[in-house]
Amino acid sequence: MNNILLRFYEGLLTIGICFLHSTSSCSLTFISHHQDCDFPPEVAHGRHEEVIGFRVFIQNEVIYKCDEGYTLVGVAKLSCSSSHWTPAAPQCKALCPKPEIAHAKLSVNKDQYLQAANVTIQCDSGYELDGPQSITCLEDRTWYPGVPKCEWVVPESCEHVGKGRKIMQCLPNPADVKTALELYKYSLEIELLERQIEKATKYTAESPR
């Protein structure tokens, strides 16, 4: 059986292999392996873990993992070779959540968006954009300059709405029709009460004393 001798000196791992020729003699061969890489590169929003294992003929290796809400872009595993880590360190890019905007369509419809992604917002018919039309996913997983809203635009013909079918036409959501009709009913009752009060006041003023 061959014997293996390991020896470290100033960051240099020397591996000696004794090849047995007989029970009393062998030829000793030394192989050098550098272990002098600097500390692995730091990656924002990520961390690295050393690959554990007894592998004297294999270079030191680390694997990078990203924090929650970030995704790895590049090669995850780096190796120490000739005093350098190779390949280049990866990056941990932000994943922005989908912007929730009622009554709007997005230029790109996904559950998550990669850092630096741009999204354009188009409001549905009858709605007007309140805020920026284009937003960008930032490193902190927020949208810049902010998520806009789509506001309902009141048609000119609906500024003074009458009763019946026209209410239906002027409301953005048919589910609101019942409420609108009830409010209209109350407004008529108030108007009738005001007329009765006005009539009573006028009658009192004109009555002989």
Automatic annotation (TrEMBL):
Cystine connections: 37-80, 123-150
SMART domains with a match to the protein in the record: CCP
Domain Sushi, residue spans: 35-94, 95-152
InterPro entries membership: C4bp_oligo, Compl-Cell_Adhes-Reg, Sushi/SCR/CCP_sf, Sushi_SCR_CCP_dom
Keyword field: Disulfide bond, Glycoprotein, Repeat, Signal, Sushi
Record protein name field: Sushi domain-containing protein
Source organism of this protein record: Ursus americanus (American black bear)
